[in-house]
Design a protein that fits this description.
Layout (H helix, E strand, L loop, with lengths): L4 H17 L4 H20 L10 H13 L4 H20 L26 H10 L5 H16 L3 H5 L6 E2 L4 E5 L5 E5 L2 H19 L18 H14 L8 H14 L4 H8 L4 H4 L1 H17 L4
Antiparallel strand pairs: 1-2, 2-3
Helix pairs in contact: 1-2, 2-4, 5-6, 6-8, 6-10, 10-13
Length: 301
């Protein structure tokens, strides 16, 4: 193989291998061809005649160029992953003797901070579902429980009567991989639940029976989609102009606790995070808010 023909031939060999041995879809193969073609074009301009001639510095400069053109970190990481696959294949086939990607770290995206509601927005949201109608009692109980416990929406709609311990003020939740945890309910959430159980749920169920805590007007378990739809409507009634999701209430629960001095381990346990590093993202929120306060009010910021 000589000149620029080596790159094209090596890419074709890899694509044949991925098509036959790994049964990848045409769409995925097209993505591999596009990404590897982009790398090979850059390396040709640097005088390389094939993947065996590519050096780590070539790839560093290539990633710099991608970054300067505004390619997302995620796309850069995907492209480098395709290149790693290419070199594993070429090494296995004896078509090259070294893998320059082994000396390159994958680009890492900065972790996006979770969006959450202010305390005033939470209060407005709860006020929007005030009233004595069965659905209003149910919606208020759901919001109070979600904000009081930080449950995931799937955990919330999956609650069954037997998972409540109103005497001790606890709810039993099953998170990812069916991991069980006990989460305390606050006084307002307990009051809203007792009101719903006494006056809202029986009216919604009518002659039907259900083991689920939160039910629709037809007596069936309320779905995630149904709760999300109700939440969007309540947010509009509350005058909240940005989009609101159930997960934002979970984020609000954690953020507001930490702002008031709760320890990270306790919040981790209540959220059901297996790794405390997942919970630590909420400390970054507080740090970012402090930076904004300093920037806005400090005379020398």
């Amino acid at each position: 193989m000589a000149g620029g023909d080596s790159f094209d031939t090596e890419i074709d060999l890899l694509l044949d291998h991925l098509r036959v041995e790994r049964n990848l879809s045409p769409h995925t193969l097209e993505a591999y061809a596009r990404d590897l073609g982009r790398v090979s074009g850059f390396c040709r301009r640097r005088g390389r005649g094939g993947f065996a001639e590519v050096q780590p510095l070539d790839l560093v400069e290539f990633l710099k160029e991608l970054n300067s053109h505004g390619l997302s970190v995620r796309s850069q990481a995907r492209l480098l992953s395709a290149l790693r696959t290419c070199y594993r294949f070429l090494l296995g086939e004896g078509l090259c003797r070294h893998d320059p990607t082994s000396e390159i770290d994958s680009p890492r995206a900065g972790r996006k901070l979770p969006e959450f509601l202010s305390i005033a927005e939470v209060d407005a949201l709860l006020a929007a579902c005030g009233g004595d109608a069965p659905r209003q009692l149910r919606n208020r109980a759901m919001l109070e429980v979600l904000y009081a416990t930080g449950l995931r929406v799937s955990e919330l709609v999956g609650l069954k009567l037997q998972m409540l311990d109103l005497r001790r003020g606890l709810v039993r939740a099953f998170g990812k991989r069916r991991k069980e945890r006990l989460v305390p309910l606050g006084e307002q959430a307990l009051a809203a639940l007792e009101d719903y159980l006494a006056r809202g749920r029986p009216a919604l169920l009518g002659p039907h029976g259900s083991e689920y805590l939160f039910v629709s007007a037809r007596g069936r378990p309320l779905t995630r989609q149904g709760f999300w739809k109700n939440l969007k409507r309540l947010a509009l009634q509350a005058g909240i102009r940005h989009s609101v999701s159930p997960h934002q209430l979970r984020h609000s629960f954690a953020t507001h606790l930490l702002e008031r001095g709760a320890d990270l381990r306790s919040v981790q346990a209540m959220l059901g995070h297996a790794d405390i590093s997942t919970t630590e993202i909420y400390t970054h929120i507080n740090a970012e808010r402090l930076r904004q306060v300093i920037k806005r009010f400090h005379p020398r910021s």
